[in-house]
Structure formats: C-alpha cells, structure tokens
Amino acid sequence: MSEEIKVAGKYAVRKDLLYTSKHEWVRKEGDVYVYGISDYAQKELGELAYIELPSEGDTFSKGDSMGSIEALKTVADYYAPFDCEVVEANSILEDETELINESPYEKGWILKIKPTNGVEGLLSPEDYIKLIEKEIQP
Question: What is the pTM of this model?
C-alpha cells in the first residue's frame, strides 16, 4: 500500500495518486487510469447506498457527469477528470456500494478509463491536501 498522509487527522490522501478539485482520484496503470472518489468525498457523503455506473465504451468530456452515488442523505454526481472512454466499471459496487466507504483507494475503485485527448489539470497530492484544508476551515 502506498504512503498515506492524514489531513486534519481523518482524511487519507495517498501519495501515489492524482486528484481532481471535485474529490476524485486517478491512478495510471499502463494506458488506463483507475478512477474513484477520495477518502474525503466518501466521508463527506456518509454511508453509501447505491451507485449508478456507466457502460463499457461510454465516452465523456472533461467535467461531464459519469454517474451518481446515492448516500443516505444525498445524491452526488461524479465527473470525468479528462476526456475519456470507460474501459471497465467495478460492477461489484452495484451490490456492495459500501466498499467505497471501506476501501476508497483499493476495492472501492469505480471505473477504469482511457484518456481520449490528453490528461491535464489534475492535482498533485500536495495540492489536493491544500484544497481539503481550505474546504474544512471554519
């Protein structure tokens, strides 16, 4: 497992990932990126009940909603971090959505996506930590 940094004592940020300003992460594996929501995002949403997954082959432009996650008190969209095509969806999450809460960076990954037009605008772990710190300030 990669080294983690705890932000405000409770939000894990992994050093081997890149992040978005909407609290998603990506990890490059060959020519594909594994994608999920961050520890911060899953803790802010609370207990998750349902996830809507796109289909293999679906394409999205950067910033498009790729699906939604339903928590007990809210529904939130998750967004394309860059122009991409869905290579695989983690279908286990349809029956075990709680894996996102239990293991957001490992078993709780949401999609495997392939960039269709470059990968720009992602945040380093250090920049992502600054974003969380800014958001949690009273």
Answer: 0.94
